[in-house]
Amino acid sequence: MSATAAPRPLVLRRRRIARALAWVLCLVAAVPYFGIQDLVTLFGWVDQRWEWPISLDVSWGVLFTFLLAGGYAWIGVRPHDSAPGLAALGIAGIALAAGAAAGGQPEPLPIAVVVLASAAGLALLTRPAWGGADWRISWPYLVLAVLGAVLWLPYTASALAQSRLGTGTEITNGVDHWPVQAAAGMAILLASAALAVWRPGRPLLRVAVSFSAGLIGVAALAYPDRDGATEGDLWAIAAVLWGLAVSTVQTGVRRGRDVRDLEHASRQQETVS
């Protein structure tokens, strides 16, 4: 162990604190902030006396479930390898702040501040490694990120336009869903770009991006007349196919090597700590 490395008992104590904090915040994102509840509106597990804006709810749900709750859960399970979870939190926090600013509604901004502050605190506790060798372009993911921009930029722009009108009626914890729908589009764009250039984030971000895109597309196809389904059926089909492509790229031997490389790097970090 190097002279500058923290004593192992202190490292383990910090990781235990990080794990506990991450799990608490995961539950907050998933339940009090309606990550899971808004996702299940797609499957009809809600009071059917109301006409739910399914696409608006699903866009909120994917952001709070797959990127926020998912990022915290990753850190809760793997505090010794926290960088992918921190990246998911950073992407979601930045997207929420941008959605608030560009959408003309400040209400998502406090959530963004809490997310980014918690990510900074968890980073201090877990001391993630951000090795230069981890930055490597994946050409299939890069192509998908470029194609994704064609899908998610107009989706984001439509949500921002609706947010600036200030006429949204779907409110959760005092926050209109339209700027959060814009944030979901931005987060998918940012995460797909990260997939293209940053190898350690791929196991988590691949799941977050593919599920988010697929569920948003399915919601728009299933309920095209509800608020949030802004881009039409062809767009929704393309979103689902794009999500499937993200989920299947780099399978087989190359993917196995990536996972083994990440596990080896994680063991090395634990040894050094």
Task: Explain what this protein looks like in three dimensions.
With 273 residues, this protein is mostly helical. The chain has one domain (8-272). Helix content is 72%, strand content 1%. The chain is built from ten helices and two strands; from the N terminus they run ααααααββαααα. The protein has helices at residues 8-30, 35-39, 54-77, 83-102, 108-126, 139-165, 177-197, 202-222, 233-248, 253-272; strands at 171-172, 175-176. A two-stranded antiparallel sheet has the order 1-2. The longest helix is centred in the middle third of the chain and has 27 residues, at 139-165. It is globular, with a radius of gyration of 19 Å. Mean pLDDT is 91; it is low at 251-257.
Number of domains: 1
Query: How would a crystallographer describe the biggest sheet?
Result: 2 strands, antiparallel
Strand order of the largest sheet: 1-2
Instruction: Report the sheet-strand fraction.
Output: under 5%
Task: Extract low-pLDDT stretches.
Answer: 251-257
Derived from helix and strand composition plus strand pairing, the structural class reads mainly alpha
Q: Determine the number of helices (DSSP H or I, runs of at least 4 residues).
A: 10
Number of strands: 2
* Nearest-integer average pLDDT: 91
- Which series of helices and strands comes N to C? HHHHHHEEHHHH
What global shape is seen?
globular
Span of the ends, CA to CA: 7 Å
Task: Give the C-alpha Rg.
Answer: 19 Å
Oligomer: single chain
How helix-rich are the residues, as a percent range?
Answer: over 70%
